[in-house]
Amino acid sequence: MSATPDAPKTGGFRFRDLGKMFGGAQGTGRQVGILGALVVIIIFFQVVTGGLTLQPVNLINLVNQNAYVLILAIGMVMVIIAGHIDLSVGSVAAFVGIVVATAMVSWHFPPGLAVVLGLLVGVVIGAWQGFWVAYVGVPAFIVTLAGMLIFRGANQFFGNSNTVTTPDSFNQLGQGSIPDFGADFGFSNGTLILGLLAIVGIVVSELRQRRTQTLMGAEKAPIWVSIVKLVVLVFVAGGATYLFATGRPGTSYPVSGIILGVLVLIYSFITRNTTFGRHIYAVGGNWHAAELSGVKIKHINFFVMMNMSVLASVAGMVGVARAGASGPGDGTGWELDAIAAVFIGGAAVAGGIGTIVGSIIGGLVIAVLNNGLQLEGVSHDRVQIIKGLVLLIAVGIDVYSKRSGRPSLIGMFTRNRRAASDGDGPPNATLDRPSIAPTGESAEASSRSQSTTPNA
């Protein structure tokens, strides 16, 4: 057993501190790299498209067109962290969409009641799949593969393979934007207020996080990390606010983007600041150790599967609202986009590692890549090839760097953490779990980090 390391330094430059900048205690250097890649992609397409990428109208379309993928990515990262996969989300979204559309058109449900019905359908489907995974023990891959077939067929059976048009009041979920009000200053006042609230929230959140870490005696990143983080986030939030607020009259920040933002805040809090969220990481990191530590494995597995179907129902309703109709082809391939977003955003294939913010960044990489290639007139087949290569390279670099033990960008970011734990267990164990849980959290996280072995 290794000696307890000395108290960490709070000043100076350390590469591993960069990993905490945008991913919290579960952040890794890879997420910083993906964020940098996103910035490079945006700048590249801004140049080659002659400035079209950051035009307000294009940004609004970008959010509306990709909100469903990002919503799915929120649930998918929790499923993957827990060590599972969900192939059914596209079919579940399509089935919920046709049920909600039929409820409004044929059963004369008001939009609000139809949305509640859609969420309840998602809960029932999620409970069904969660039961098979958590309590029967059928692998999630098989359960959700069956669900993909079942609910795709249910969509076509329930809707008779017809397209059902939805009312305009419901379509505001996917097509609407923040309503404007007040004096005309050439900006959307509603978007300006939203942006100001976002900036205040960013600053307050960072200050509260550092204060909490001080009170708990936990390791804090150096002050320069917080300053750089705040400068970058405030700059991005302010720039995005300006761009969305200067769109053509009648447009501003989309409603679907607000739904996405609320979900990101809620689930980021759950995964980073609650015992339940840390248990999800524990199950994915080493479920044997988690179970011995008292974690209720079945409850965790049941929740992540049910939660995924609920978020799939939200994504399905947003997608139907954007299209203005529900049909038999809805949701096709959505699960692949969500899974790609999670892995590009830094989640580990074996589970135990990943963040909500990282998955959103991964989804934005895909979204900007799609959008930029379309603006350049690249054909759909080539777009698919490029997306596949991006996913393969992103995951391949991570897996290769872990297995080879050779110097790499990711290894550079996590070098200090590995050096502190080289005395306990095989090196690959620490490579596979560089930051499953916050430093100093629970004993179960520490034992999990030391006992995990790489999958075959």
The structural class is: mainly alpha
Return the domain count: 1
Tell me the helix content. Answer: 55-70%
Order of helices and strands: HHHHHHEHHHHHHHEHHHHHHH
Please give the radius of gyration in angstroms. 22 Å
Q: Which percent band covers the strand fraction?
A: under 5%
Side-by-side strand order of the widest sheet: 1-2
Low-confidence segments, given as residue ranges, are: 1-11, 406-456
Number of DSSP-assigned strands: 2
Question: Can you offer a commentary on this structure?
Answer:
With 456 residues, the protein is mainly α. It has one domain. It is 70% helix and 1% strand. The chain has 20 helices and two strands. Strands 1-2 form a two-stranded antiparallel ribbon. It is globular.
Summarize the structure.
The chain is mostly helical and 456 residues long.
